[in-house]
Amino acid sequence: MLGSGAVRADAPLTGTQPAQWRVIWTADPATQATVSWSTKEAGSSHSVRFRVRGSEDSPAEQLAESGRYTGGEFESYYHHVRLTDLLPATAYEVQMVSDGNESPGFYFVTAPATDRAFSILHGGDSRSDQDARRRMNKMIAGLVVDSYDNDDLADDILAFAHGGDYIVTGTKMELWSMWLSDHELTTAPDGRLLPIIPARGNHDKGKPFNEVFGFPDGDLNYFGFDIGPQVRFTTLNSETSTAGDQAHWLKAELKESRPTHRWLVTQYHRPVFPAVKTPGSGLKSWVPLFEKYDVDLVCEADGHNIKRTVPIRDGKHDETGVVYIGEGGLGVPQRTPKTDRWFLESPGMADQGNHVFVLKFTRDALQGTCLLEDGTVRDQFTRPVRE
Fold first, then answer.
1. Could you tell me the pTM of the whole model?
2. Same domain for 305 and 225
3. Which residue windows are coiled coil (predicted)?
């Protein structure tokens, strides 16, 4: 592996020593990835060294896009390297370098370009309780390690989709810095970085969200890409207008993707079939499109509870409909769900507790497992391939 020194999660943010490392997927993850990190001081030269893992070739080096994070008096700096033309299903060694200070050596793996089984994680709402957030991050790191302990490719966890609300106040960079340091705990002991697929939550207002995740200034934060040729994963932004341009984009996205993909999955923050709150505006803007184009699974957050709806179409239980899961348990205090709502009644479910969903994609089924913080399986479900 590039560089030297053991991987240390939760590294301090000092000087121009690279810290708060992360890999971000917002475009074709088979060939692209954003490698990001932070420094306490601005520095003058920032780059990433990278090469195929295990290669004896000299590493390539690419300069970073850098700037000061916005958000209060807390001073720190972001650095993003947008890697392109990568090889699918390939492990890449990476090392961040700022003013000659090197990070430990890490690696990440690009998404496959072939039709193979795999898994991803989904969760949301990691704000408020830092101790619980750190425990959940350590759990995530353990799940990733365990997923590669056998020869079943379907178990391999490729990425982590986060449904938003990372911190309490999105304009306070001091809180973001704490989240970023805690996110290091998702790093596996051997230096594997788990790519994150970010969605914006209602607590994530302000410029820091784009600066943390490498979006251009003013980006509207909705996008879609393939994870393998048969899984289309779409991230929406419930914190801007869900109608208008975003709804038109979603219609075109789903219309194009449905005929060519086995699985359509969407994530965003505010639930449209909530277990606690009132429905978000996506109920009118997005749900008719989800149903028209037969989205297989929708991942929500915001409610601070566990839920899985019955399949829904035209406002009622219909086995041909869309299933909604959520609603956020990556460290946030939990609320009591309203289990008498029709869409949560059996065979749906609702509960509370810190949790993360494991979503497994195979040729025959999309299998979901809700794991509590102690590893207990709280819920399991299967979505068959649509005829």
1. 0.96
2. yes
3. none
